Amino acid sequence: MARGTAFLGSRYAIMAGAMSWVSERHLVSAISNAGGFGVIACGAMPVELLDKEIAATKALTTKPFGVNLITMHPQLIELIGVCAAHKVSHIVLAGGLPSAPAMEAIKASGAKLMCFAPTAALAKKLVRTGADALVIEGSEAGGHIGPVSTSVLAQEILPVITDVPVFVAGGIGRGNAIAAYLEMGASGVQLGTRFAACSESIAHPAFKKAFIRASAREAVASVQLDPRLPVIPVRALKNAGTEAFTEKQRDVAARIDAGEMDLAAGQLEIEHYWAGALRRAVIDGDVEGGSLMAGQSVGMVTAEVPVADVIAELVTDAEAALARRAA
Length: 327
Ligand SMILES: Cc1cc2nc3c(=O)[nH]c(=O)nc-3n(C[C@H](O)[C@H](O)[C@H](O)COP(=O)(O)O)c2cc1C
What we know:
Blueprint: H1 2-8, E1 14-16, H2 25-33, E2 37-41, H3 47-60, E3 65-70, H4 76-85, E4 90-94, H5 100-109, E5 112-116, H6 120-128, E6 133-137, E7 143-144, H7 150-157, E8 166-169, H8 175-183, E9 188-191, H9 193-196, H10 205-213, E10 219-221, E11 234-237, H11 240-257, H12 263-272, H13 277-282, H14 307-326
Parallel strand pairs: 1-2, 1-9, 2-3, 3-4, 4-5, 5-6, 6-8, 8-9
Antiparallel strand pairs: 7-11, 10-11
Protein name: 2-nitropropane dioxygenase
Keywords: Dioxygenase, Flavoprotein, FMN, Oxidoreductase
Organism: Glacieibacterium arshaanense
């Protein structure tokens, strides 16, 4: 992990991936205080809220942490400005390929820039255009996902990206998996699902209970029934909301076919279906109608425990796995 810890400035190269509504001051500071690397999820936050969240996180930890910004946020440049004013050390750009002005603004702020690389070709391009480190995230992950598994991305990208640290994410639940990716050339890892239900997480007790009860096969990717409808692939726990979404797609497609609705209106209805749904699940505890974004590693979440316990378990397991190999 040496390369990863040197880059992050944390004790362990274990990042807690930003999770909208979950990764706020309490969880982020707890991760960084326990030796991991916490990342604030800016999500759709306006500038003033991000400003407050960074200040509040700084009040809870003296350790380094990062901020995750979504590339299509309409105030992206202003958000980068807030990070710069707080001297945030690491900015992660998520949600699509970053624009050159955004990358340049981050570099000019003095922060280290981390980007998500979905393919080896784009990984090389991101490094060429200024990314200081990459995250590769496979389809086992919770939240918005790409089509390729973590193990395949790791095999394709780790051997060809050697100039910058690469962090592997998606489906990591145990230390022996961390050891395996480090052996393959990763500088560190990023986990989300295993941290979402920790004691320090502000997620609603019902959200945490759903994580504790769920098994891997319940964390499913959203299904697109009709190629005309814009269904973004998201991995979340199956619930009444995911079933109703399938029904909604069927209904909208039928209305379009019958000429009762034009295509643009139908697409908009699908696009807006999940608006506010993650907040409803995380904050309000609506585990039936809300979006319970979770990765396949959710089966390894079996109790509500402090972040420090999860990190200690991961590190002990990883060390034991590496020691076994050395022996
Ligand atoms: C509830 C939830 C919300 C998430 N929100 C975001 C987000 O806002 N931005 C982002 O880049 N990734 C988001 N992710 C992905 C995580 O940052 C992380 O990369 C992922 O959880 C790692 O895979 P794992 O779930 O298998 O551990 C989210 C994941 C979960 C489970």
